[in-house]
Amino acid sequence: MANNNKSLNNAVNYSPDNFPCGAFITNASRVITYVNSYFTTELLWKPGELIGKNADVIFTQSSKIFFQSYLIPTLLHEKTSEEMQLIIFNAEGVRIPITVNAHISNDDCIYWSFFNATKRDKLYEELIKTRETLEEQAKQLKLLASTDELTELLNRREMKKRSTLVLEQTTRSHQSVALLMLDIDYFKKINDTFGHLEGDRVLKELGHMLKGFCRQTDLVSRIGGEEFLIMLPDTNKTDTLLFCKRLHEIIAQIEVNNTPLQVSIGVSICEDKISFTDFYTQADNAVYKAKELGRNRTEVYISEQ
């Protein structure tokens, strides 16, 4: 007899009150008929306080709408609902995110389990913030890899990459495209006479001016030193020369020791298929010609054939 009593004393208590989650039962009218002690110990509701009340009483307004319009219809149709994300109030009005599982029995009673998701939501928010930070860092790295740090224009590598795509497109659409190479006249003298800070100031200001003057479809880059490259899609020779004339005028607004800045511009116009390397070489040859003929001018590449 003593052994039997010992066995009874050691019997496992399977009461829902021992589970580390909320559990309650509602009838067909969604009135609460049972809650375990979790609602008292963790959610601070008084014993029996929720009995006889509609289950809506514990949900926030948004969760109540979801509860009525989606969760209940899902239960009625599928007899079960798993891992629904809702927000409830504890007895003090504190909002608590939860994960809900529910099952409807043959007698139309619904058996609910509630798992506190506060830590999960906090971790999720941290993961979201971390992902956003990483995405922003990746964006910045991509920007640094594709732009010139000083002028914030495209760098040489990115210019070549994008120009190649533009040339492929213009070949398919049979449009003309212009490539301009700008070389600041006597830039070494600016650095030697007024210092590299003044040289950097000129480069920055010119880069900003070119970016504002060109169209969004144009490609503008600093390819090194005092040289800049501009690609003008769907632009013929007449429009390109007008563009260059205006370019000389606005660049002259930048002054060094009260003297207008001057540039030499080499232009290449293409209406047929051409590689970026050949196109670049043509513009480069044209700018050298502009330098030889006195600088502060625009020269167009002319084939020797």
Defining key terms:
2 domains, Beta-Lactamase, elongated, Alpha-Beta Plaits, 305 residues, alpha+beta
Write up what this structure looks like.
This protein has 305 residues and is α+β, with helices and mostly antiparallel strands. It has 2 domains: 117 residues, Beta-Lactamase, CATH 3.30.450.20; 154 residues, Reverse transcriptase/Diguanylate cyclase domain (Alpha-Beta Plaits), CATH 3.30.70.270. Helices cover 44% and strands 24% of the residues. It is built from 9 helices and 12 strands. The protein has a 5-stranded antiparallel β-sheet, with helices on both faces. A 5-stranded mixed β-sheet has the order 7-8-6-11-12, sandwiched between helices. Helix 6 packs across helix 7. The longest helix has 29 residues. The model has no long low-confidence stretch (mean pLDDT 88).
